[in-house]
């Protein structure tokens, strides 16, 4: 039996809907062994982020080194990297260990509005981390920060994805369309061609952790050797079902349903 492995380097969400917790749940649901390096601890629930506590740099580095020197990883992803020093350290660790299948989710703001990326960390993200990424997965506000563009249309999304690849050195980019009205169409640019990922929109406040879950699903599929386009399509289906079959827990922005994809497939068999 082949064991595929994925590493998430991100913040912890005590409410379980986003961050490390969402990533590990997603890996597990997609038959990938998940490992983690925690960059920050958050006191968080569906009502918001009530505290952020960065892990010391030495602790982050030792987590990454411990995992990769022994277990290894077929793919990795990053999430919340709140400070420039953390981004620079993580980038150095990725280079040192030669990680190639890296998905960068440029987490900037929590669903409840709390900032998860310091303003002075934006340049470090662009200059240190994006050139190492096989894929970058910004939502529209994040794509605007990265590129400096105003993104309102599909054509704008295409241009933002193109710039992330051509100007910042990423292998590919998916600009997610959930912040636009209408059907949530994502734009994937693989360095040569554009691909549109379409899905259904479900009106719900329970969408906490969608970005983490989507990028984790892509990471898991890449760890299994799937192509980028195959991984993106699976991730789109995974997150669409996770939103559709809402758990309905919490008084605020509740988490998505990480069971939904597997249960839907089992029901169809």
From TrEMBL:
Pathway named in the protein's UniProt entry: Cofactor biosynthesis; thiamine diphosphate biosynthesis; 4-amino-2-methyl-5-diphosphomethylpyrimidine from 5-amino-1-(5-phospho-D-ribosyl)imidazole: step 3/3; Cofactor biosynthesis; thiamine diphosphate biosynthesis; 4-amino-2-methyl-5-diphosphomethylpyrimidine from 5-amino-1-(5-phospho-D-ribosyl)imidazole: step 2/3
Domain Pyridoxamine kinase/Phosphomethylpyrimidine kinase: 13-257
A biological process term (GO) from this entry: thiamine biosynthetic process
The keyword Magnesium appears for this protein: no
Keyword entries, A-Z: ATP-binding, Kinase, Nucleotide-binding, Thiamine biosynthesis, Transferase
Pfam families: Phos_pyr_kin
Protein family according to the UniProt entry: Belongs to the ThiD family.
Protein name: Hydroxymethylpyrimidine/phosphomethylpyrimidine kinase
Naturally occurring in which organism (per UniProt): Paenibacillus tianmuensis
